[in-house]
Every structure is written in C-alpha cells, then in structure tokens.
Design a protein that fits this description.
Two copies of one chain form a homodimer. Chain A is mainly beta. The first copy, chain A, is built from five helices and 31 strands. Among the domains of chain A are: about 90 residues, Nuclear Transport Factor 2, Chain: A (Roll), CATH 3.10.450.40; about 325 residues, Copper amine oxidase, catalytic domain (Beta-galactosidase, Chain A, domain 5). Chain A is about 5% helix and about 40% strand. The first copy, chain A, is globular, with a radius of gyration of 26 Å.
Amino acid sequence: MVGKRATRFPQEEPPSVVAFLNGQTHLVTIDLGPGLVTSDVISTGSGYPILTNDDMATALEVTYSNLEFNKSILARGVDFDDLTCITPSSGWFGPEEEGKRIVKVQCFSNQDTPNFYMRPIEGLTVTVDIDKKEVIRIIDTGRGIPVPKATHTDYTYTTNSPFSDKAPMTNPMSMEQPKGPSFNVNGHTVKWANWVFHLKPDIRAGMIISQAMIRAEDGEYRSVMYKGFASELFVPYMDPDQAWYFKSFMDAGEFGLGSTAMPLLELNDCPRYAYYMDGVFASADGRPFIQSNMICIFERYAGDVGWRHSEIPVMGFNIRESRPKVTLVARMVASVGNYDYIFDWEFQTDGLIRIKVGLSGMLMVKGTLYENIHDISNTNTMTGPLVSENVIGVVHDHFISFHLDMDIDGANNSFAQVNLVKEQTLSGQSPRKSYLKTKRNVAKTEDDAKIKLKLYDPSEFHVFNPSRLSRLGNPTGYKIVPGGTAASLLDLDDPPQIRAAFTNNQIWVTPHNKSEEWAGGLLVSQSKGEDTLATWSARNREIENKDIVLWYTLGFHHIPCQEDFPVMPTVSSSFELKPVNFFDRNPIMGVKPTFQNDLPVCSVASSY
Amino acid sequence: MVGKRATRFPQEEPPSVVAFLNGQTHLVTIDLGPGLVTSDVISTGSGYPILTNDDMATALEVTYSNLEFNKSILARGVDFDDLTCITPSSGWFGPEEEGKRIVKVQCFSNQDTPNFYMRPIEGLTVTVDIDKKEVIRIIDTGRGIPVPKATHTDYTYTTNSPFSDKAPMTNPMSMEQPKGPSFNVNGHTVKWANWVFHLKPDIRAGMIISQAMIRAEDGEYRSVMYKGFASELFVPYMDPDQAWYFKSFMDAGEFGLGSTAMPLLELNDCPRYAYYMDGVFASADGRPFIQSNMICIFERYAGDVGWRHSEIPVMGFNIRESRPKVTLVARMVASVGNYDYIFDWEFQTDGLIRIKVGLSGMLMVKGTLYENIHDISNTNTMTGPLVSENVIGVVHDHFISFHLDMDIDGANNSFAQVNLVKEQTLSGQSPRKSYLKTKRNVAKTEDDAKIKLKLYDPSEFHVFNPSRLSRLGNPTGYKIVPGGTAASLLDLDDPPQIRAAFTNNQIWVTPHNKSEEWAGGLLVSQSKGEDTLATWSARNREIENKDIVLWYTLGFHHIPCQEDFPVMPTVSSSFELKPVNFFDRNPIMGVKPTFQNDLPVCSVASSY
C-alpha cells in the first residue's frame, strides 16, 4: 500500500461543499467527526458553481413568462405546446455580464419529433439572470430563417413504429461467460484478475478511479495511480454570430458529467453481465438524490489477441501460440444536453489502462435559409456544412482533460521525456547514414513538462519512480501513449481559450496539490480563467521526485456531415497508460489459452 | 456496379508471374484463355523477387557447411544441435553487394527454449550468395558477448508444464450468436449486413479487399473501394553496427505477408464462429501449396455503442435510446520471422472501415556484455534498453503502407484537403476573437496531395465523387481518419529511406496505374529504390476527377521495454475510412436495440 498525502508543500484544503446562497459562493469545509463547519469562505474570485437543475428550470420559467419572448415565438409560427428550450452556459466575454449569474436560453420546436435539437428557432437568444429571475436581454435576429422540418429526425424505437426494413441488421450477439464474470465489487472496490481499484461516482467528474494497483508476479500489489478522472471538457463552437459566439462550454464545471449521467440502458449501453453502480449526490437544496445505474462495469472479450507467435516452417519449430485478450471496462455516459460522452476506463491484464471517450447524441445545429448547397452564393459565410435542409452542423472542437495522479510504486515520481532523435553516422562508420537514438530528459520543473505533441519530433512520456529500480536497474514506470488527438487553435487571448487554457498543451505535469483538481478551475461558470491548470503551472514548480499529477487532454475537431444527422454514430478516441519497465517481463506470459471446453453451450431463448 | 479500368493514361500491364531463373528476373504475362505466354521481359532494373522458403533453406545449408562458421560457433560454446539461424534480408547499401542475390544469416541458441530469438549469438553475420550457393563474407565481432540465458524465455503452453499460478486469470468468455453469424461467404465474396466485398488471400499483401460496396437506404449497393491492401511494411532498426545496419526490412516485398501467414489458432487468434479461408499460392517451383486457415472472418460485439442519446429530465423527454455496435472483422496474421503482424479490416454498419495493425511476437534483440544498467559506464553507447540480462531491445520503427484504391460511387474521384484554419474576428464583430473555419482545397496534381500530418495545422482528407452529389448538393465521399501514427525520421538519402521513400509522407494520392501496386516497388529485395511510390509520384500527374489511389502509411516507433520480453503483448494502431456526406443521413438510425429475448441461454460445457 502507498504512503500518501504527506504535505510536502503548503496545500490549500479543497472545500467539502461548494454552495451558492444569496448571490455568494461559499466554500465550506466540514469536519464529519463532530459534524462541524470548520471553514466557510466566500469566494472573491470569478466563477460560480455548477449550474443545478433548479437553475436551469428557473431560467426556463423566467423566459416562458416573458412577453417579448412570447411575441417572438408567435412571430415564428411555433406553437407554445411544441416549444423546448435549453440553457446553454454563457461563458465569459468581458465585464458586461459580470457580477450576476447568467444563462442563455435558446429554443426549438418539438412538433412531430422528440429530436427538437434538429429544429432550432434560429437567432433567438434570451439572457437570464437566474438569481434575480429576470430577462436581461433578448436578441432576435433570425426571424426569416425557417424552423427545419421534423422529417427523418425521430430516432426513437418503439415496438409500434414501422422501423426501416432497409436498416442494416445483424443477428443478436452476446459476450457470454459460462462461469460468470471474473470481477467482484465490494462497496466501491473493484477486484478483477490482477487489478484492484476504487471506483466512485462523482457529480462533476462523472467517475473517479483511485488507488489502482496491479499484482506483480511475486504477488505484491503495486500502486499505479492514486487518482484519475475527467477534469474538464471544453467544447468551443466555431461561429462568431450573436447567437453562437458564447458556445464555449466547460461541461464538467458548468453542468457536471455526473449530474448529467442518466441511467444506462441495459444490454445496449453495456453488455449482459454488467454490474451497475448508482451515484448518490446532493441536490441544489442539499438533499440527496440517486443517479441510478450511472456506471457499469463489465468484462470484454472482443476477439482480440493478448499476445501471439507462430513460427514459419523453415525454422524447424511448430509453434502456434496465441492468448485471447479479456479486459475490464468501467463506463459512464454524460448526456450534456445534446451531446453524449461515453467514458470508458479499460483495464488490461498486461497492465495497460486505456481511457476512451466516445461521442454520440445530437449535433448542435444552426438554422439557415438554404436547403441545398446550390442555393448558397457564398458558402464561405457558412460556419459548417449543410447536414439537412435548413440545417447547418456548426464546426466545433471537444477537449477532455484528464487528471492522472500517478503513483508508480509510491507517491514520489518523476517525469521523463524520452525523445527519439536522429543521429548521423560518421563517415566510414556504417553503410547507414542515419538512425534514431533515445535521449532521456527528466523534467525538473513544470515548464520542462509542458508538451505539444509533434509527429516529427517524437517522444515517449514516462512517469517513473526514481527510487525503485527493476531487476535490471531500469526505473519502474508507466508511459502515456497518446492516440488520435487534436489541439486547440484559438487565440491564446480569446476569452474561451483563456478559460480553457489547459488546452494550450496536450501534456502537463504538476506537483500534487489538493486544491488543483479541476483543469478549468474550481468555479467555472462565467470564470475569467484565473484558476486553471495554466495559471497554477505558470509558477513553474519543481516536479522531480515528487508526488506529481500528469494531465492529458484528448481532443477532437468535429466538422459535421450528413451522417451525423439526426443522431451521430459514435466517434471515439483514446489514450493509454502503459507499463514501461514496471514488470520484470511480460506479465501475461503465463495466461492460459482458450479451449473448446471453456466455451459455453448456448441456445436461443425459449420465448424467442 | 462500377465501370472500371478504362485506360485513361498509358498503363504498363503488371506481370502475371514474377519468376527468377538462372540469375535473371522474368516478368511474364500469360493469357489464360489459350494458355500462352504473351510477354516475357527480363528485368533490367535493381531488385529481386520475394525470397522463397527454398532461398532461405539454401542460405542456411550453405552456412551450416561452412568451416569458418562452424569454428565460430564452436568458439562460442554453442552446441550445433542447439543452433537456429535466420535469414534477414540484406537491404541495399551501395555497389558492393549488387549483381548477386544475397541474404544474411544470423544465429541463435535454442538450448532449453523454443524462443531462440532471445538467445542471440551476437556479432556473427554470414553473407551468402544464394544463387552461387557460397559464403561471401563472415563477420564475427562479438565473441566476448555471452549468449543470453534461456531463463523465462519459453512462452509455450503445454498441458504438462507447470504454468504460473500467479498469472492473471479470468473466466472464459465467448461472443455467442444464438441465431448464428449474420455473414455468409460465397467463394471469396463476403456478404454481411449492408456490406458486400471480395476477400482474396495474397502471397505478398496477405489479404486483399476488393469491390467493397455498401447498401444505401434505397437498396442500391454503392461502391466504396475498388481495392485495398497492405502494400509494403518497412522496419528499420536503429543500430549502425556491422551486424545490425542492414536490418531495414521490407517485409511484404522481401518475404511476403501471405507466405508468412501461418494457420490461425482457433478460439485464440479468432473467436468461435469465425469462418476460416485458405490461401492457395505457388511454391518456388511453381507448384501450388495451401496456406490453410490463413484468414478468419468473424462478427464482433465488444460492448460498444453504435449511437445513443439520453435526455436529462429538465427537458421533459424521457429518452433512453442506445444501439449496440456489431462489426465484421477479416483478420490475417503474418509471422515475418520474429514479429507477428495482426491485420484487421473491420467493417461497421455505419459505413466506417477500420484498418488495424497489431504487433506481437518477439523482439529482435542484441546480445550485450551487461546484465544490469549499473554495469554500463556509458548507456549512450546502447542502441536500445536492457530488456533482460545480456539482452538489448534495439529501437526500431514499423511503417505499413496501405494501397487504397477508392471508388466512391464510381471510378472517377477527387481528393480534397479540408483544412481547419483559424480566423480572426473583426473588431466589434463578436465578443469572440477567433474561431476555426474550413477551407476546402481540391488537389489538382499529386504534389497537392503529399501530406505530412500536423497537429497544429489540421485537416480532414476526403476522397469524393465530384459527379455525384447528395440530396443537399454535397459531393459524396469518404474521409481517411488517421489515428496514432509515427513518421520516418531517417535521412532522405539514407539507402533504407530511399528504398522506403513511401514513408516520406503519411498520405499520397496517385492516379490509378496497374503497375503501381507495391509502394516499395515490384522487385524489392536489394532494390535501389528507383521504383517506389515516391518515384512514380515525382511525375506530379493530374489526379482530379480521375480513378485515384489513396496511400496511407501507419507508423510505430518502438522503444522496447522489459514487458516486451520474452514475447510482446500486442500493440495496435489503426486508421479509418469513414463516410462523409456519402449517406443522406445516419445509416444506422433504424437499427433495433437488443432485448433480453435476443440473447442466448447458455451453460458450461458438459465436459467442463
């Protein structure tokens, strides 16, 4: 087990409770023993707590009872019974909207479809002060733009609906486990194969993995990660229009990935034999509520190979060895308004952890006069492609920043960039002119570990324990392996980018500090960006042989297309945490192959 | 169906047979009708055909009967009965070895282990002329370096062997299909869900997918790809030493991905219910031989989500919709000596094709005096990390170049780079300072489509049909979506890089030319690199609205680690071909969810 949380540097204790009362944000610390409030600090910086369901309901009520708004809706020819409005966060764009809690309200027609998102009432934006319960401003610029039709927008399945017989159909499949799953969950502790970790539903991060440990060959459980979670999710839309410029969402801090995690749909969101875990959170009034079936845990066998080798006959060995790959997945889905974010933490027996984010749900679309590209004289005025008649899919990005408090064999770790550098051979040294060589640079301070990934200047990125060497003298470590990703290209001084400055690099390393958990700051709604990973890290603190936190931001550029209408096929990307000289050798060499008798005998369900 | 192969520009007919006889390479064209040789051209350029098993056996025989070699082995203290030798290709490094067919021979001890790869006899390299059947040169520099021990190198499973009870174990799992698989194979035509394609085993490419078509909503089968396959595989090792400099393998052209594809191991290489396809190839003497169970085809359900959406309660809709993702995989594994390359073509019902390459098998390792890092005074002299006592895992790269002859709705296509460019807003235009905008540039000639991927200058890459517009007026297309990849950093004028110049860019587009199939050239062994994708493409031909071929190279940098010893856990990377405005809307919206009754009733096997 890991000795943890020695206070090596002064740390601000993060609040137990963030509460908003009478226009003030209270950061409250509570001692659960005696049941006392030990500290109640009123925030003086920018930013407000997560918007609650009550806040959103308030914004809608205020809007619905506003006369000017009602006139606009009437003028659009939309029936009030068909109206659905959403409450996008306002971001921060200067002093005008400071000092009050603001949300925007924008509306849609749900006539003939539950997929109101595809029927925007374009250009109508209501700005609401949710504490004063008043409309501050209504901008109504798009009255000439028709509400797009409902045709082909309803994606819901009901046994009554005549579903397309042209849809691609496959026979049912199921991952079956004749002897049952191999994991067990005790409270929040998950034990599976050689892994054990703690899994906690969280109203903001959605899902927190902590104290992840893996068993080595000698039976010792060794620490890999103290804590890992999605810290912030930045979604800037690429449209400067009045009804669009503010859409630069910080979903974790503004809405909460856990508070928007609806119950998972059994057999579809997660396979059979999944274990479902509830979340228990506080409502706006402090009372608990249950987010049921919020996380699922399941084993995966996808036909993949853990390792294998065959020998070609000329070598004289008749070798055909292969081992199936079985993994464990913890999954949570945040439905932040239109978008669904599928978060997977996948654990492999070889020590690898894959963190995957899948995007589905609905596009945020913009109404337009045009039904066809050929009607548009200047497509350069469009901020995204036409994805249906009168519907533009506005270009946008997604950035998900992960807080990864690695504890490789203990709290004190270092970060090394293992750079692959081209070397030139000397004349006459070799028939080769060039080759690559590794240069290992251990980061001393935070500035050494602010990494922009480069295809033509590649590196591995290791978190290692300088005090624990392998049998061969290599430091034990894990590397972070980026997959497909994207970088933010916005101006560094653009307000959304200042607030989401954690996207200025793909990798950062900070010394552990209890109050530095949220990459976009503790109080994100309308924050000015003075409490972000970038501001903390500007101090350029020492990070060598310390309790360090690795931050990785996974990015997506999304240029929509017709296939994203009216609901998007899942798009995924991932990154990996992978052992590097952590084990003395391949830790799954001893795994058994699958034999015919291991497999179940199955038949169709009797009631089929 | 697609009207194809109109000869729009002069095309050299590729040979039906490449044969090596009496020191000459014959490029023979045959008319199967009358059974006549219509052309027999003797190659005058550099390069030789794929090395055959006979060639390799010859090289070994010549070596084993060489006195000096035998003395060296004796001096190393290796018993002849324990000797296993391999035949790495020699590459091309100038005039010295030109004009004769050369392979290198290097040897290992298989004493106490079938994993001889981990027991190199370091520094001993025999150069053999396989046609003259004579040893040209023996270099023996490493006599002081011990042969690494056999300890912990045997990875084979036998029911007799006492397997580690410390290995991470999971209960058996199986992807079960109570109503059977949904695909059928008729000869080489595979039909599944909305896809139909032709699948051909190939001695060089391993597996060729052709005439891939997908059914649209109106029932029409629409062309996506005329032909796709792994065209070349370049593996340069990063060590300039005499025994290592030449290791710059071109595995498809030197050894053949199909000729090294051993029978797949049922239930482990591929899941239950997989269909296995044999390859029938020609031996060195022209007689057919069967590569049995060389390709498997199976359906995959991995617990993933095709699309989904939940609505948060405040919106007033109780929506929980999710659809499981079932895909079809065609798999082939090439065991090119020590390395195993797992090639997957995965088809999704939403139109996406994922091409994945997994790497497993054994490292190519180098013997060293050292048992521990601390014994090494200057680790800078090492060309890779110590992965076991006396064993260095030499740093290397893998580049797999795919030939993707896209035919989106017909043969004539264009290539567009859809660049995401930062735009600055005008003063007063918007509270936002910046946003991204797409700039679509259609490539006119090959030079416009030589792409180096850039994280900070991102683009989408579309192949589209300029003559077929969607309902909305968008051209129908597919985009290539790179995932994690790597670029070659070797000098452009380094001989291995000249030969593998297809790695100079990640993406290329060429006009279709029948004779331009192999990115490293038709005759690769000892080629000088005058017949590669880079030389063809230097002509800068027109590629707009033509039958075009997209080339993508997937790359891996591999810095070995202890976990790769003695057999490597699979490392994978992939890229995708994805519809973009090809369908009018999400093509899997009508797919049914899974219900309890769809799932099988399973029990453990009776003999369990």
